[in-house]
Specification:
about 750 residues, mainly beta, Immunoglobulin-like, 7 domains, 6-stranded mixed β-sheet, 8 helices, 49 strands, about 10% helix
């Protein structure tokens, strides 16, 4: 049967929206406030939650009147719902308990899909209000309802044969599930239901101090089947859970990281038994939880907590030694959900074994604080604190706008340069309310011999999304106070000739970098636009600070790409237009004596080895292919020697190298054990115990014999002078076998005496 429409059913759901509409109507052309989305008010029409019974009114409320005397009921009455589909269709079935007994008095309801669109995404407030009223009136009119009889049977009549229906059951104290096929039902079908008795249990979860837990979860475990039945989140610490008949283990957890847990409580539910409210009191799980507090100047900087079991009696002093022990560790974040820098962070490690632990705070690669604690059967809390910073260990960076104002959303980054490379020293973002960024100076990592490089310096960069990046070299003892005044930025439009139609277009990556820096693909310094046409010429770059840069074209990725072009460009404030062309690329084919030699070929340009592309599954496996090469001079190096070649070449060339006639010694530590045998970096070894080097296989065999002797003689070319070095070969071999502990090394690189 059809439900009877009423004018007040939807009032409670739409009163807020309608009130806004009425107010806006009384204010002429003033725009109405943004509406609450209807999706937040109602569930979709084809879900079970959508089928809630109509709101009941014990007495008719006083009519709400709009300006001019029009009542809310009058407005609702003027809005007609879509027509309700009807026909001679029937859906019937029975509702039985889980033990097979009929259940009378169950409310069974069916409703078709809503025939119209609720409202368009760009609908006005008035349109949304009217569409919601239409929807609510249709929901009332379209509900077909029936009540099960003493046999548990029901029949829903008057249904349209052209529709499918969402059907659901309701009766207080019961849960219903469809038997057999689920989903929407066509008229003429039978839908039977199984009813399961449920019992409502009021639950409170309290913290150890007796207060309600603000974040708690109640887990229910089925004792009979030994499985988890459900898990309910109680955001206020209190609520109601539903249980079927049986025996249940109930436990609660709480805290931001579930660091608190209650004892298990067993509850038995059965018909006729009254369930008393359940109070679960939390207590700390065995573990460690704590806070880390930073000084205001260091808000948002990184920290890590190390947890060391059974610590030694002496205080911790060597952070590197602690890390090498690989202790348990927890990263501490000092940013909230909106990525705002904070001075307080939290950490925890739960369910650990009882015992004595040392908690060590690692802040920017220094031991900032530590505690020794004993964990038994409860949660131990630890509060750690980073002391006020030593100004001599930091750069205090102020990043200013062209007008001299501090840019609060700016970023400072430090890079450490040294003789054997560079490393990022870390960076920091300006914290709200601060007028400077504190960046720790740091030191370069030591080499394999444990020694720091003699020469090193810093590059400090100041970045702002609106202005770009400005970099500055600073010597290792440079002043702490560093001020960057950014200029009005420039942007670049690059017309890349031959880019869009290139067969390798997806692998061509243009970038604008500081002079001498390596070009990267869509990362690093430039902030290329990331839309669908980001890799189509013309290319957009910026914003960036005015100055001298390199325009770089790389084929491939950041780490295995090859540089195809580098040219100097000058960027001015405002818009800049650049033009560059993709250079021609060639393939080099080299034939070797066999496949093994072909696989071992290496291609070098200006002394640097190049990446090799191409597949080996081809007809002539003795031919090595080097793809996508620029025109110019190259060296091809194989196991026996090296030859020069000029690209492009016609056809396939034969590998006819100039044979190596020596090996060059390197990686010898100055003043070390290897040097004590009389060997020096740069020595060109060409004779061992009277035998010349020969090819590399012969050389390896002679070296093996030499290092098995008590006395061996090597003849080397040192500074253009032939020098004989006699030493104990066994002793040198022993040094090299223990190089990991004595930090000694000796490398052999094939070469030529005449180089």
């Amino acid at each position: 049967m059809n439900g009877k429409p009423g004018v007040f059913t939807a009032i409670g759901l739409i009163i807020g929206l309608l009130a806004g509409f009425l107010i806006a109507s009384s204010m002429g052309n003033e725009p109405a406030p943004a509406p609450t989305p209807a999706a937040d008010l109602h569930q979709p029409a084809d879900t079970r939650n959508d089928a809630a019974a109509p709101l009941k009114q014990e007495t008719e409320p006083a009519p709400v009147r709009a300006p001019g005397g029009t009542s809310l009921s009058d407005i609702i009455a003027t809005i007609d719902p879509p027509p309700v589909a009807a026909g001679n269709g029937v859906i019937s079935g029975r509702v039985l308990t889980s033990t097979g007994e009929p259940l009378p008095g169950v409310n069974v309801t069916a409703r078709p899909r809503y025939p119209d669109r609720r409202y368009a995404p760009d609908a006005t407030l008035e349109q949304r209000v009217r569409d919601n009223i239409r929807y609510e009136r249709w929901r009332e009119a379209s509900a077909h309802a029936a009540i099960t009889d003493d046999s548990g049977a029901y029949e829903l009549a008057g249904l349209s044969e052209a529709e499918t229906y969402n059907v659901w059951c309701e009766l207080d104290g019961w849960r219903f599930s469809a038997r057999g096929q689920t989903g929407r039902v066509e008229p003429g079908a039978t839908r039977d239901w199984t009813a399961t008795r449920i019992f409502k249990l009021a639950v409170e979860v309290r913290m150890p101090d007796g207060s309600l837990a603000s974040e708690a979860r109640v887990t229910v475990h089925d004792v009979a089947n030994d499985r988890r039945q459900s898990s309910e989140y109680l955001g206020t610490g209190a609520g109601e859970i539903q249980l079927e008949a049986g025996e249940w283990k109930i436990v609660a957890t709480g805290g931001r990281q579930d660091e608190y847990s209650s004892d298990e409580v067993v509850v038995r539910t059965e018909p006729g038994k009254q369930l008393a409210p359940l109070v679960l009191t939390l207590k700390g799980r065995p573990g460690i939880s704590g806070t880390v507090t930073l000084p205001e100047a260091l808000a948002g900087t990184s920290a890590r907590v190390y947890i060391v079991k059974d610590p030694p009696p002496e205080p911790p002093v060597d952070l590197q030694a602690i890390r090498q022990q690989r202790p348990e560790q927890e990263y501490v974040s000092f940013y909230d959900r909106e990525e705002v820098a904070s001075t307080r962070g939290e950490f925890s490690r739960l369910d650990i074994e009882p015992g004595v632990y040392r908690i060590i705070l690692d802040h920017e690669n220094e031991i900032a604080d530590w505690r020794d604690i004993t964990v038994t059967n409860d949660l131990v809390t630890v509060d750690l604190k980073v002391p006020e910073p030593d100004r001599s260990k930091y750069f205090v960076v102020r990043i200013l706008s062209p007008e001299g104002d501090f840019l609060a959303d700016s970023y400072a980054n430090l890079t450490i340069h040294h003789g054997h490379g560079w490393q990022s020293g870390g960076g920091q973002r300006a914290a709200p309310g601060r007028d400077a960024i504190w960046v720790k100076r740091g030191e370069p990592s030591s080499r394999g011999n444990g020694e720091l490089p003699e020469q090193w310096w810093y590059t400090l960069s100041a970045t702002h999304e609106e202005y770009g990046t400005l970099k500055r070299r600073i010597e290792r003892d440079g002043p702490a106070e560093q001020e960057f005044r950014l200029q009005a930025p420039g942007t670049v439009t690059l017309a890349a000739i031959g880019h869009n139609e290139h067969e390798l277009q997806k692998s061509l990556n243009w970038s604008i970098v500081d002079v001498g820096e390596q070009g990267t693909s869509l990362r690093g310094f430039e902030l290329r636009e990331r839309d669908a046409d980001a890799n189509q010429s013309p290319l957009k770059f910026g914003p960036m600070q005015p100055g001298a840069y390199d325009l770089v074209l790389v084929l491939g990725g950041d780490f295995d790409g090859s540089e195809l072009l580098r040219q100097s460009v000058t960027i001015a404030a405002g818009e800049n237009a650049l033009t560059a062309s993709v250079p021609a690329l060639y393939t080099l084919k080299v034939r070797c004596a066999n496949e093994s030699d072909a696989r071992r070929l290496r291609l070098l340009r200006d002394g640097r080895r190049l990446r090799r592309d191409g597949e080996w599954e081809r007809t002539d496996a003795a031919v090595a292919e080097f793809l996508n090469l620029l025109a110019g001079e190259y060296e091809i190096e194989g196991p026996t020697g090296r030859m020069r070649v000029t690209v492009p070449v016609n056809g396939t060339i034969e590998f006819a190298p100039r044979n190596f006639d020596c090996v060059v010694l390197s990686s010898i530590k100055e003043g070390g054990l290897v040097e004590g045998f009389g060997l020096r970096n740069g020595d060109k070894l060409f004779e061992v115990d009277g035998e010349t080097m020969g090819d590399m296989n012969q050389f390896n065999a002679r070296m093996t014999l030499s290092l098995a002797k008590d006395s061996t003689t090597w003849k080397v070319l040192r500074g253009g002078v032939v020098t004989e070095v006699t030493f104990n070969g066994k002793a040198l071999m022993e040094v090299m076998q223990n190089k990991k502990t004595n930090r000694e090394d000796l490398d052999f690189d094939p070469g030529f005496q005449s180089d």
